[in-house]
Design goal:
31% of the residues lie in helices and 21% in strands. The protein is α+β, with helices and mostly antiparallel strands.
């Protein structure tokens, strides 16, 4: 079966298991997906942004829904970003513990069988919208309940990663910049031992 993996790194011949602070799996792992489209959303300029948060929902029919958590998120994350979609062949089991129904994981090194260069991830993602395979839910149109859910996600992220006491954390600048109202709330909660 064919699987895909998105990355900004070029010239790879294999995918090696790695650990990362933003993964919900704590052992060294290779992430793969059966969806070429989803692999696009994992081409991240992590050095510029400092965080990985695709903001995606995947419908039963495979349609990807990008649910903005702040205004202009799709463009902020992907405009001008280039990278690669790597193709791998194998019998990898889907792993529902990742929270993504098309995701497979392995702790073994995976050989790459092909690669496609993507010059602008943002433009490539929007092509899926033209064919009805991608839905873009903008922050400005989000109902109040979605805004409340976003607030909860951000406050929990700040608490879990101890951002109030770790100014060197790679995500802190991003949270301060993109969620200033939630950051201010977290700072007050932390100062009063409520976070």
């Amino acid at each position: 079966m064919t699987f895909y993996h998105g990355s900004v790194a070029g010239g790879l011949t294999e995918l090696r298991p790695q650990t990362s602070w933003y993964s919900n799996l704590k052992e060294p792992t290779v992430y793969l997906t059966t969806s070429r489209q989803l692999a696009l959303h994992y081409i991240w300029d992590l050095e510029r942004i400092g965080v990985k948060c695709p903001m995606l929902d995947i419908r039963e029919d495979g349609t990807l829904v990008f649910q903005e958590m702040f205004s202009g998120a799709l463009e902020y994350f992907y405009k001008g970003v280039s990278g690669y979609i790597y193709r791998c062949e194998g019998d990898f089991a889907l792993n529902l513990n990742t929270g993504v129904r098309t995701c497979a994981t392995t702790t073994a090194t995976v050989p790459i069988t092909g690669a496609e260069y993507i010059d602008d991830v943002y433009e490539h993602i929007l092509r899926y919208a033209e064919s009805g395979q991608f839905v873009y839910e903008r922050w400005e149109d989000a109902p109040q309940w979605r805004r409340d859910v976003t607030r909860g996600h951000v406050i929990r992220f700040i608490k879990r990663n101890k951002l109030c006491t770790h100014p060197e954390h790679p995500s802190r600048r991003f949270v301060e910049e993109k969620f200033p109202q939630y950051w201010a709330e977290a700072v007050v909660l932390h100062a009063n031992n409520l976070l």
